[in-house]
Amino acid sequence: MPKRVWFVVFLLAVGAAPGHAQTAEPLRLVQSVPLPGVQGRIDHFDVDVAGRRLFMSALGNNTLEVFDLRASKLVHTIRGLREPQGVTYAPESNRIFVANGDDGTCRMYDGSTFQLLNTVHLSSDADDTRYDPATRRVYVGYGDAPDAGLAVLDGTTGRLLETIRLPAHPESFQLAESGPQIYVNIPEAGNLVAVVDRNQRKIVARWTLGGAQDNFPMALDEADHRLLIGCRSPAEVLVLATRSGEIIARVPAVAHADDMWYDAARKRIYVSGGAGSITVVAQQDLTHYRAIAQVKTQAGGRTSCLAPRLDRFYLGVSAGMGRPAELRIYALQP
To answer: In Å, how far are 227, 291, 307, 328 from 304, measured between CA atoms?
Structure first.
């Protein structure tokens, strides 16, 4: 065989070999926005999809940072907060809710003027937040045992409507859309997952995690009846059946996981953690999941936000080692 023909055949064979197949990264970094004025730890995010804005809780800076996503730049800072943690945007009322860990308050701001409109005082450590568009209510996890729970606020006035008692401080929680369930991670109560009925305002099921500990982030695949739990010890993702609490799968993941998201269109899970990477897990079917990428980030890149309607994933990276804090923007790949 002539050398030229042999060389072409060799290249085709290598390219066709499964071990040499080229796979695109599931997340592609498209921009980093430096934040030289932000010091300390960065906490949670939320997105105003219609207005193309991103809200970032800068916990260590005691500020809420507002970004224009069209221009990819910081456009406003709300100051005077007390360790802001959870942030939720209510689009129907154009209200921003910010939970503060230091003084236990949840503060409501006008989404256009950023004027403070209402403050609700909870017992302590107001933390993660969620919005229910069907009822236009905001849920706030707060407190420590014996005074811990979920506060339910009116999404227009910010008024406290009711509270749901929990055995210890809640970390991430998820609201079902097709039923009354709220799934709550409570690591300080024996690494418990509590299922709350929001109509009865009480816990109706308690699930354990088979020895896994420090269950902080959570995501929900409601269509497939799967609850996704991020644990820190060991560092892994647990997949639970929402009808029974049975553990369906375990997948190793980034250490010190702090945020987790489910991408229904791509059947993927994104887990950001302080160890400096984003673990991407693919759902192969309802019982099989596997890690397909470890996207290297930066130590301190703990918290994140998935905006599937914008095809973007946002990561907050705290300042350190002579570099400023930054917002990293990733494009979701097919």
So the answer is: 19, 18, 10, 9
Q: Which residues of 150-173 are buried (b: 16+ CB within 10 A; e: fewer)?
A: bbbbbbbebebeebbebbbbbbbb
Residues in the chain: 334
pLDDT tens by residue, 305-327: 999 999 999 999 999 988 999 99
**Token pair recorded at residue 9:** 């055949």
- Whole-angstrom Cα distance, residue 24 to residue 333? 7
The two three-digit tokens of residue 110, written as one number: 């006008």
The C-alpha atoms of residue 122 and residue 280 are separated, in whole angstroms, by 36
- The type of residue at 214 is D
Do the Cβ atoms of 302 and 310 come closer than 8 Å? no
Q: Give the alpha-carbon dihedral of 58, 59, 62, 63, to 10 degrees.
A: 20
Query: Residue 286 corresponds to which tokens in the numbers above?
Result: 């309802």
Q: How far apart are CA 172 and CA 193, in angstroms?
A: 10
Residue range 8-38, pLDDT digits in tens: 332 333 333 333 333 579 999 999 999 999 9
In one letter, which amino acid is 285? Answer: D
